[in-house]
Design a protein that fits this description.
Chain lengths: ~270, ~350, ~300
């Protein structure tokens, strides 16, 4: 019963066509404009960073992508299909998973159960089979448990699998949340400040996990992050937002030397 | 020392996911079941059955129903009594209006009807949360009270408003004595408790707990909120309905609508709070406790030579329950079930200090 | 359905009577709801025990009046309610200070049950009549406009005046005094208020005392109308639909909500209830509140809750 992770694709990364495209998105709450005419795209298989000062609208952008907020203007095209309004659970069914800035774990449940909830969309056995918990229901439960255990091994959180997540330190909670998002086998993974509040070692671990997920499964990743070192190191392309507007869009090198970005956010040349 | 887990290794997920993974727990529960099925029928008196065991079992069932809805799914409900009433009256009407219907089928259908009513009154839960939802369930409680009081068809136009259940006749075997009643109820409760436990440790239970803990996050990872909540209402009301039918047919024999009024709802809520929200074991502990206190209040002062009137006894009951709820909320919000867990943890070390 | 409108048209005097009667009942609901609002506004706690407090206060008053004049009994009852507030703050609120709302709600459930039992153990559980010195015979007004006049209960007028006076006093208290300002700060955010030096325990003591005295006034008026008895506590459950209509944090909302529920109930009972067996009053308010909740979850005056992730 080995639980070694076997990569299913070659370590060579291929960045493909456009997976997600946001066009001219504007979002306001009451009188506050969170996003103004933002357009960019994300390609299949790449790691796309979204950066900018606080309040620039980065989280709001992610919320629009997974259907939690509905922009007043603009469209989102995902897998070639133009969406108007999508509810969050539809986004989840379409293969979009995310983590949150202020951890949104289910505090009353253990690590294992939290990650198992990520598998819920894939569990099909009906009510009566569940009630008896034998045969097909039990088999399904065990299959998903195996998958989740592989994620647990991958994220190196075996020792805390039965601990209620409310009791875990912040860094571990973030890891569990990543595990829950991974459990859904997403096509597009949205990470909202996954390394906030972590020390250097924890950040290195998290970087490694993100890169592994991207390389081994080809999962496309959109990443909000403040740590410039991380952004420059791991992302393929970067979008910069400021006051709800896009002010730069390109490779890390292009963005880092862009004067507008330096003025608005970076300060000194990084 | 006695309660040691060392040496118990699980080599399959199935073993790890078992209801009682620790061998001592499994032995414990088998012992309890043995006592319940064999020991008690040999030793108990009629009074014991009628005054303690049967009400305890039936109310535990209702408590399981409420715990599934409120403890596991986080939807506060003050209308359990009403759903019990639906089950009771549905069973009654089926029994007297549909000839030759098997009693077990009647109970199942009564539960089903209660489930449907539960779903209807659970529909607001999509828009309403927390205390507001509690008020919606109060609407259910008072409305259903009124229905069974005023719409005479349900009580078969009896002049007094109270009705009597027919005898418990299943496949020709009549359950008449208290011991037979007890065994009948015991089997039903054990089976339904097992089903409840299976539900909560599988995908449905996890969906419920996710909705309870953070419904926004649950929706975002793909859990369909309305369906999950309505399922909780349906299952919870099913259990309450069956409990109500049992309460009416087995325990009371004849009853009027007041048996399932708001007081009953509060009583079940207290059982669930004191026993522990989110714990099947807690339902039994809470039900046992709340069943026992009135009896103690009746017997103990008289035994000590200090007689108190029944009115005073019922006031003292209120005071004790109120004080206990506050006490538990301060000391251990997860009720007896958590105290039990803590006790087991301590038992792991005993007699060593650490 | 149409026959109802015909009825109203035929006997407008009677309709006015029903409406006025409903308004008066509504005033009584508002009085109880006021206590809820006060506590919720200032401590975020949904005080399920408000009804039990009304009963307890009324019992104290009526039993004390057996041995002392009204004013002395009233004052003594005020003292008792303050002592009760003290006990609640010390024994229940302080230990539970950082818990979530649902835990505090269940704690007030416990308080309600405890008070029910305690009050009746202490003061007895019979039905007591409360004599306030207000004449019981009804008045006929507007005899010139409507044939036979419109029937109004003098006690109800008294209740309305008392309620009105109480609302004015409370509004002034919240808006104009330093304590009122501190209360509003606490209602917004406990920890922030503490960090600017608002003494939380002291504030809660004041709020629960005021709510206790409001409960006393409500109990006094209800008790004079219905007699002081156990069902008074259940009447308080009726205040919940009032709060839903009016919002949990609004004093004017509690008043208007109470009036709407009172009138709505009476009209439903008189004109529709007779057709389907009567007794609609028991559930009409709740169903009305429920329907309301579906369209406007925050009530008429409450604040809209925006959820953020």
């Amino acid at each position: 019963m080995t639980t070694m992770y076997v990569p299913t694709s070659a370590p060579e990364r291929t960045i493909g066509d456009v997976l997600l495209k946001v066009d001219d998105i504007s979002l306001s709450f009451g009188g506050v404009k969170a996003l103004s005419n933002v357009s960019f795209d994300i390609r299949q298989g790449e790691i796309r960073a979204i950066i900018g000062p606080n309040g620039a609208g980065k989280s709001s952008m992610l919320n629009c992508i997974n259907g939690f907020y509905h922009p007043q203007q603009g469209t989102i095209t995902y897998k070639g299909v133009v969406r108007r309004h999508m509810r969050p659970h539809e986004a989840a069914a379409q293969g979009i998973a995310r983590t949150f800035q202020n951890i949104a774990l289910f505090k009353g449940m253990s690590t294992l159960d939290n990650i198992m909830t990520g598998r819920l969309l894939k569990m099909k056995q009906n009510f009566f089979m569940q009630a008896l918990h034998w045969g097909p229901a039990q088999k399904e439960e065990i299959e998903h448990r195996e998958f989740v255990e592989r994620i647990i091994d991958f994220l190196e959180i075996q020792s805390i699998r039965k601990v209620p997540v409310g009791r875990l330190p912040y860094g571990l909670q973030k890891r569990v949340e990543l595990g829950r998002a991974l459990a859904a086998e997403p096509t597009l993974l949205l990470l909202d400040e996954p390394m906030a509040g972590m020390n250097v070692e924890e950040k290195e671990d998290m970087c490694r996990f993100i890169l592994d997920v991207n390389e081994e499964f080809g999962t496309t990743i959109a990443l909000i992050e403040h740590d410039m070192g991380v952004v420059m190191d791991i992302s393929d392309r970067v979008v910069v937002l400021d006051y709800g507007r896009k002010i730069a869009d390109g490779t890390p090198d292009e963005v880092r030397t862009d004067q507008r970005v330096i003025d608005a956010y970076l300060g000194v040349q990084h | 020392m006695i309660y040691r887990e060392t040496g118990q290794f699980k080599i399959s997920y199935a073993a790890d996911q078992a209801i009682f993974p620790i061998r001592q727990d499994l032995i414990g529960i088998l012992l309890i079941l043995a006592v319940a099925f064999i020991g008690v029928p040999l030793l108990a008196t009629d009074y014991f059955y009628l005054a303690i065991l049967i009400p305890f079992l039936i109310l535990s069932l209702a408590a399981i129903g409420l715990n599934l809805l409120t403890g596991y799914c986080g939807q506060l409900s003050l209308g359990t009594g009403a759903f019990m009433a639906v089950g009771a009256y549905a069973a009654y009407n089926l029994a007297i209006r549909v000839p030759d219907l098997n009693l077990l089928v009647i109970f199942l259908m009564a539960g089903g009807i209660a489930a449907l009513v539960g779903v209807v009154f659970g529909l607001p839960s999509l828009r309403i949360k927390g205390f507001y939802l509690a008020v919606a369930t109060l609407a259910a409680q008072f409305f259903i009270d009124w229905v069974f009081l005023r719409i005479k068809w349900f009580t078969n136009y009896t002049p007094s408003g109270s009705v009597s259940a027919p005898a418990l006749d299943i496949f020709g075997y009549v359950f008449a004595t208290p011991r037979q009643h007890y065994l009948f109820v015991l089997v039903i409760v054990v089976i339904m408790a097992l089903i409840a436990k299976n539900l909560v440790r599988g995908r449905i239970g996890r969906a419920w707990m996710a909705v309870r803990d953070m419904d926004i996050a649950a929706e975002i990872i793909g859990i369909p909120l309305l369906r999950t909540k309505l399922l909780a209402f349906a299952v919870s009301s099913f259990y309450a309905g069956v409990a109500g039918a049992l309460w009416a047919f087995v325990y009371l024999g004849s009853w009027e609508p007041y048996a399932f009024g708001i007081d009953r709802s509060f009583q079940i809520l207290f059982m669930v709070i004191i026993g522990g929200l989110g714990s099947i074991l807690g339902c039994f502990l809470g039900a046992f406790f709340i069943s026992i206190v009135p009896i103690l209040l009746n017997q103990v002062p008289a035994a000590l030579g200090v007689p108190i009137s029944t009115a005073t006894a019922s006031h003292l009951e209120y005071m004790i329950f109120g004080a206990l709820i506050i006490f538990f909320l301060i000391v251990e919000p997860h009720g007896f079930a958590r105290l039990w867990q803590i006790g087991k943890e301590k038992l792991r070390l005993w007699p060593f200090p650490h | 359905m149409l026959s109802v409108f015909a009825q109203i048209y035929d006997q407008p005097g009677f309709f006015l009577e029903v409406v006025l009667g409903g308004l008066m009942a509504g005033v009584l609901y508002s009085l109880v709801a006021l206590g809820f609002v006060l506590i919720f506004k200032a401590s975020g706690v949904f005080n399920f025990a408000q009804g039990a407090m009304v009963l307890f206060a009324a019992l104290s008053l009526v039993r004390l009046m057996e041995v002392m004049p009204f004013w002395a009994a009233f004052l003594a009852s005020c003292v008792i309610m303050v002592a009760l507030a003290f006990a609640i703050e010390r024994l229940v609120l302080r230990p539970l200070v950082n818990q979530e709302g649902i835990v505090l709600f269940m704690a007030t459930l416990g308080i309600a049950f405890f008070l029910d039992g305690f009050g009746q153990t202490l003061w007895g559980s019979e039905v007591y009549t409360l004599e306030l010195g207000v004449p019981k015979d009804p008045l006929f007004i507007l005899e010139s406009v409507f044939e036979g006049g419109v029937l109004i209960n003098q006690l109800d007028i008294f209740a309305a005046v008392v309620a009105g006076g109480l609302v004015v006093v409370l509004a002034l208290f919240f808006q104009k005094t330093k304590v009122g300002l501190a209360l509003r700060a606490v209602a917004d955010d406990h920890q922030a208020a503490q960090s600017i030096g608002v003494p939380l325990n002291y504030i809660w003591l004041i709020v629960w005392s005021v709510a206790g005295i409001v409960a006393l006034v409500a109990g006094m008026v209800w008790g004079a109308k219905l007699g002081v008895q156990f069902s008074l506590a259940l009447v308080a459950l009726k205040a919940l639909p009032v709060l839903i209509l009016g919002g949990f944090t609004s004093v004017p909302g509690a008043i208007i909500g109470g009036l709407i529920i009172g009138v709505g109930e009476k009209i439903a009972e008189v004109y529709f209830g007779s057709q389907i067996g009567g007794g609609i009053e028991n559930w009409f308010a709740y169903v009305l509140a429920l329907v309301f909740l579906l369209f406007r979850p925050q009530g008429l005056f409450g604040e809209k809750i925006i959820e953020r992730v």
